Amino acid sequence: MLVVIRELYAAFTQLFTTTRYRLILVGLVLIAAMISVSELAVAKLFTKIILNEEKMSQTKFIIFIVGFFLFFGITRGGHFLQRIYRVRVFENAFKASNSEVVGAKENWRWSLAFELTNLLSTCTQLGVIFLFFTYLNWKFGLLNLLVVLGIFQIYGRLFQHQIEAQRGFVIARKNKNPVANAVRIGTRIKSGETGILISGIAMIVLLGLLIYFSYTGGISKPNTIVLFFGLRMQNSNFSNISTGLMRFARALTHSE
């Protein structure tokens, strides 16, 4: 896990050399994380509407429905604007950098910046999801944290092996010893899918814990539904991190 943190931090400081653009990137990452995790709040609002619709007055029901669609629309619009604006940030940050990068390495630098931003955003989302889970039920939140740390430990090993493999491919290309596409692409896909499989197994374990807590009365039914949506979001984030780390390793080694 430490190797992932080290490489992400190194790429962050090398790509964004000025304090201004580092702060802007951090802001974009936080916005992306909050927008995505706000979908859990949307899910909680939706659950409240469905489970209590018979107890609500017509006026209150309409207000909740309007609020639900308005909140959902704002999150989607914010997500779109954030992803569009980051392209301009990358361009200005690269222009402000003192390093001259041309040719293919310029393309890899852009790829590295996109992968870095996606990974930072997704990891921040996981942090906010953990806080949300802990707020709903601290016992489940802590158990979830242990599982998350275990997954990241495995991801770190897969990532380290992928960097070594990708550097080998770069050296082979420089030495004019071509590597078959099936090997180059297959190595990256295999590592990414292995990470997805591991996170899927962890998802099953956490779902089992959630059912147990719900059955024993440790978590209310509305919160159980919200936590279920949260676990699905967390598992999706892990899938994105697994494949994103392998693409990051490829962009990192080719931009060196």
Describe the structure.
- Keywords: Membrane, Transmembrane, Transmembrane helix.
- With 256 residues, the chain is mainly α.
- The chain has one domain: ABC transporter transmembrane region fold (Up-down Bundle).
- Helices cover 89% and strands 0% of the residues.
- The protein has helices at 2-15, 19-52, 58-96, 104-136, 138-174, 181-215, 221-255.
- Helix 2 packs antiparallel against helix 3 (58-96).
- The longest helix is centred in the N-terminal third of the chain and has 39 residues, at 58-96.
- It is globular.
- The mean pLDDT is 84.
CATH architecture: Up-down Bundle
What is the CATH domain class? Mainly Alpha
Query: What is the total domain count?
Result: 1
Shape: globular
Report the β-strand fraction as a percent range: under 5%
Major sheet: size, sense and barrel closure? none
* N-to-C CA distance: 21 Å
Alpha-beta content class: mainly alpha
**Helix and strand pattern:** HHHHHHH
Give the integer mean of the pLDDT values.
Answer: 84
List keywords for this structure.
single chain, 256 residues, mainly alpha, ABC transporter transmembrane region fold, 7 helices, 89% helix, 0% strand, transmembrane helix, membrane, transmembrane
SSE topology:
Elements: H1 2-15, H2 19-52, H3 58-96, H4 104-136, H5 138-174, H6 181-215, H7 221-255
Helix pairs in contact: 1-4, 2-3, 2-4, 2-7, 4-5, 4-7, 5-6, 5-7, 6-7
Quick structural overview:
The chain is mainly α. About 90% of the residues lie in helices and about 0% in strands. The chain has a single domain, classed as ABC transporter transmembrane region fold (Up-down Bundle), CATH 1.20.1560.
